[in-house]
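Quick review question:
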């Protein structure tokens, strides 16, 4: 395989799909050497097959707003790769959603899910619909309209959607309700469900908690203690909330959160139950701004229109959206003495920022490893639904710990290079080898 040749072909086939092409290139560059040691992969066209989704559904989502006006959005479901299990991955409702972004997310999801050690293929879906400023009734009608089209293509052993940006417990509830009505079955077709109808304990916290278990492992492997470390977190949604909660519990001090309006710097730390809960209150207000934090906690400072990566911190955790940390941010973090950066958002760093971290041998871990706790917990929800039982907090947390620790181990096994662990390479090789083996065993399909 020659990465540049494959990328040239792919760029010609999918012009302008920049996020998808970025995600593919990152994986191909890191697996190139390993791949070239397997001539059987080349003969079976594994790369050519693995970079294309199995199939993509695109559909119109018409719905009626509170003023009686018809609105039309676009809906998608990308069933990326089903080699190791039913398609699995979230639904994103955000104005930035395009086919390119969902293809990048579905591609990443395929390897992420392989890393969890659970039998899940990769998928992703969503819409350019935004819940911002929408009433509860509008959100419900939109979710129902979305599922009215999608329901025939999903199912507990086919494709199991969940939440992502803009889709939390409320939206999953509405989508599940309509699915159940149309399919006439009460199965684990969605994960991230409410606790009263088949949801798993710890699912809302799992991405953030899992990320911190991973970061804790990275630290321990490199003789670093998390206690007393300062952390910059971006975002203020469900994932950021889980990360802040667990980081605080592990003795670190989180000093920032951010929104589209700017970031909040809280020198004392976002470390009390009141402050952490207030993040959720801000999120649930539906206004998508963090500025009110400083009215409630006047010791904190709001920096309008800026990103938290300009702060002097030990650890940076992007928890918001793709490409939210660029080369300039990476340089500034390093100049300010950062020791560890872990992507909690999917592809939170630009390709140039990732290259910078790796070239400088900074401790850096990619989203597909760090944030896999969310989908891992979804996998556990599927298991509980299939068994018609519900596990306790302790049980789910024990699994989550184990899975994150196994992912870390796989990264070290495949990414160790002398003293330095290249977590990007480690995660990509481990995930790829598992999917490639399954594809080889199943023939040309
Ligand atoms: N959206 C999450 C992710 O990016 C979770 C997906 C799921 O639970 O299926 O992994």
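Suggested answer, residue by residue:
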């Amino acid at each position: 395989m020659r990465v540049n040749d494959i990328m040239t072909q792919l760029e010609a086939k999918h012009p302008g799909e920049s996020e998808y092409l970025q995600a593919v290139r990152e994986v191909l560059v890191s697996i190139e050497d390993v791949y070239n040691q397997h001539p059987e992969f080349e003969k079976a066209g594994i790369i050519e097959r693995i970079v294309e989704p199995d199939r993509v559904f695109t559909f119109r989502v018409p719905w009626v707003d509170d003023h009686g006006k018809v609105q039309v959005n676009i809906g998608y479901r990308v069933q990326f790769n089903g080699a190791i299990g039913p398609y699995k991955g979230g639904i994103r409702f955000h104005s930035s959603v395009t086919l390119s972004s969902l293809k990048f997310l579905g591609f990443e999801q395929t390897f992420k899910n392989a890393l969890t050690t659970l039998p899940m293929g990769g998928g992703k879906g969503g819409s350019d619909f935004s819940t911002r400023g929408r009433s509860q009734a509008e959100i419900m009608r939109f979710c129902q309209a979305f599922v009215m089209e999608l329901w025939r293509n999903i199912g507990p052993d086919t494709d199991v959607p969940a939440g992502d940006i803009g889709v939390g417990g409320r939206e999953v509830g509405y989508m599940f309700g309509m699915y159940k009505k149309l399919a006439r079955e009460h199965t684990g077709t969605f994960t991230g469900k409410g606790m009263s109808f088949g949801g798993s304990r710890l699912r809302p916290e799992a991405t953030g908690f899992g990320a911190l278990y991973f970061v804790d492992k990275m630290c321990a492997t490199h003789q670093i203690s998390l206690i007393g470390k300062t952390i910059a977190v971006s975002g203020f949604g469900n994932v950021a909330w889980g990360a802040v909660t667990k980081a605080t519990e592990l003795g670190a001090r989180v000093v920032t959160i951010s929104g589209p309006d700017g970031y909040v710097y809280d020198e004392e730390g976002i470390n009390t139950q009141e402050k952490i809960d207030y993040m959720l209150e801000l999120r649930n207000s539906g206004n998508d701004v963090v500025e009110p934090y400083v009215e409630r906690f006047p010791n904190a400072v709001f920096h309008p229109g800026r990103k938290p990566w300009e702060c002097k911190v030990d650890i940076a955790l992007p928890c918001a959206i793709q490409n939210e940390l660029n080369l300039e941010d990476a340089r500034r973090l390093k100049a300010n003495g950062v020791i560890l950066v872990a992507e909690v958002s999917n592809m939170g760093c630009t390709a140039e920022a990732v290259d910078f971290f790796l070239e400088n041998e900074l401790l850096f871990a990619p989203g597909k490893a760090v944030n896999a706790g969310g989908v891992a917990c979804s996998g556990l929800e599927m298991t509980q639904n299939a068994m018609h039982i519900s596990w306790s907090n302790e049980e789910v947390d024990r699994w989550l710990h184990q899975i994150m620790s196994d992912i870390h181990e796989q990264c070290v096994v495949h990414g160790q290079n002398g003293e330095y662990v290249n977590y990007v390479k480690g995660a990509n090789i481990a995930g790829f080898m598992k999917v490639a083996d399954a594809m080889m065993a199943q023939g040309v399909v």
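Why it works: Residues 393-415 form the longest helix (23 residues). The chain has three domains: 1-52, 53-186, 204-370.
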